[in-house]
Amino acid sequence: MTANRHPNSDAAPYREAEDERVRRLTRDGVVEHFFLRAHGSGAYLVVAVDRLDAARSALELLPMYQAGLLSLSFEELAP
């Protein structure tokens, strides 16, 4: 999954809640890997779910997405 932060959006008020949500998804085994973009405009997440809609359901609860600061892009990968 790719998360793209919208230009000129102020993510600071949401950062702590966002970090906690990602940590919880990692502890729960949903997020396997998390990579921030070097320039800070988004992230790449590798998620381990059986269905694409399960990934959407989990990640659309991210606070920055809920606040309209992120767009999410999902793509299924094969081993």
Write the layout of secondary structure elements.
Blueprint: E1 2-5, H1 15-27, E2 31-36, E3 42-47, H2 52-59, H3 63-66, E4 70-73
Antiparallel strand pairs: 1-3, 1-4, 2-3
Q: How would you describe the overall organization of this protein?
A:
This protein is of the alpha+beta class. It contains 3 helices and 4 strands; from the N terminus they run βαββααβ. The protein has helices at residues 15-27, 52-59, 63-66; strands at residues 2-5, 31-36, 42-47, 70-73. The chain has a 4-stranded antiparallel beta sheet. Strand 2 (31-36) and strand 3 (42-47) form a beta hairpin. 14% of the residues are buried. The mean pLDDT is 94.
Q: What's the shape?
A: globular
Question: How large is the radius of gyration?
Answer: 12 Å
Which class do the helix and strand fractions yield? alpha+beta
Low-confidence blocks of residues: none
Mean pLDDT: 94
Index terms:
79 residues; alpha+beta; 4-stranded antiparallel β-sheet; 3 helices; 32% helix; 25% strand
